[in-house]
Amino acid sequence: MMNKSDYFQKLANSLNTESINSFNKAVIYTRVSTKEQADNNASLQTQKKYCQAFAKKKGLMVVADFGGTFESAKSDERKEFQKMLTYVKRNKEIDAIIVYSYDRFSRTGPNGAYISQQLMKSGVKTLSATQEVDPSSPSGSFQQNLYYIFSQFDNELRKDKSVTGMKERLRQGYWLYKPVIGYSNSKKGMTCDKHEFFINNNGKLIKRAFMWKLQNMRNFEISNRLESAGLKINPKRLNRIFQNPFYCGKIINKLIPGEVIDAKHPKLISEKNWIKVQDIIENNYRGQTKNTYFEEIPLKVFMKCHNTNDPLTGYIVKKKGIWYYKSRSKGTKLNINAKKLNTLFSEYLKQFELKKGLDKPFKQLVEHAFNQYHSNQQFDQSNLESRKSKLETQIDKIEERYAIGEISADLYQKYTQKYSDELADIDRKITNGLKGSSNLENITNEAIKISQNLSSTWLNMSYEQKSELQQFVFPKGTTFEKEKQRVRTPEVNLLFELTKRTTGIYENKKSGILTHNEMDSALVGNEGLEPPTSSV
Known about the structure:
There is one protein chain. By secondary structure, the protein is an alpha/beta fold. Among the domains are: about 20-160, Rossmann fold; about 185-290, Hect, E3 ligase catalytic domain fold (Alpha-Beta Complex), CATH 3.90.1750.20; about 295-345, no CATH class. It is built from 20 helices and 14 strands. A hairpin with a 4-residue loop joins β13 (about 480) and β14. Residues about 15-20, about 290-295 and about 525-535 have low confidence and may be disordered.
């Protein structure tokens, strides 16, 4: 029988058992900061070698390896790091996490220390193969925390040094980042002072876009022209391009707020013309913000006075809440209720609607028109390419003469706009020629879908959608003839002209496909027809 003192001693002895695990099992975590270091692999191999030697020295059995790749320790949301923590939490037999040094574990300072402390509460020590401390003791825990703090401090010093260097390079005119659309770098992978930016083919198209904007052309029209030339840019993105000072050879960056730097890369557009584009964008924005009822006057500017060719503007009689269109020219006396003109335009659209059941003959007529275009025009790709090359050379010469002061800004703008328009037309023809008939069916189906309910579709669209559809159907706009109260147009998109003619042929034709003579008759008056293209 145990005496009283033995019972007390047994209870006291039981308290000597530490709560920390004693399975002598560990995991190893290695990492490097960059992909280049990971590809080289020397550092990772060295880390693992030291960690394995440390485990053997401490009598720990390594049961798993983690990391082995590049992960920045500036954040503790690393994929392999989190994978390792999850493994340790789920496997209660793990006694330790071994790292080469504490900065391999974390460089987040207090947060890294906190993670180690939480692991310690679960019985898992964080051990460094090259910085031996006992994290279970107060002094060891304090020393471990210092390592984390110093790692974070080192990070901040590196960052400060790096940012200072970046600022200095920017002030010297070097662009530190990936070149913007329109530019390429012939010296990729080298330091920024060795970079050689040049204007690529897309840049030449963006240059034309700037010229078109100088003519106050709308973004969706510029976008359509660029797409025809082979460069697809959303109209909403165009303003970000137009407002980027990089294109006129300036650097403005958040690292050097308030500073404007002359850049080393070549200019795509002159500073003077870039500023003019900003004025146009600003004026357009102000004009839009003044009109809070855009939906009431979707034909503004698009519709012109038939007699004077003057664009119509809009205004509201506030007392009555009624909108009107009017001509800008004094003395024309063109003034009409906006709802009335919108209705007249909607009715005008109806004649270009394709009646139900006429899909097949319409497709037949479109294909016939397409084939006739190519046989009549004798599309010569090489001649167009040659002409394009000559025009680009002329533009380069004009820019050079302007740069050295041989010609005035007015002449420079006049001829660059002229040549740019001609280039856009050539690009469109080249693109259409390359597309061939392979895209014809998609284009035709698109036209059928749009044209079947053209009038009601337009009425139910937003202001921007109406503007795009108007421009697509009537590329050169429309006019209003006051005397006869009717809407007219100088040009209709061929697809919609053919929907009208298909319907006209079938007014007196009950069934069957179109004959060759009927198709030829439908195309009479279209000697200058263009192949169908998709613009929306």
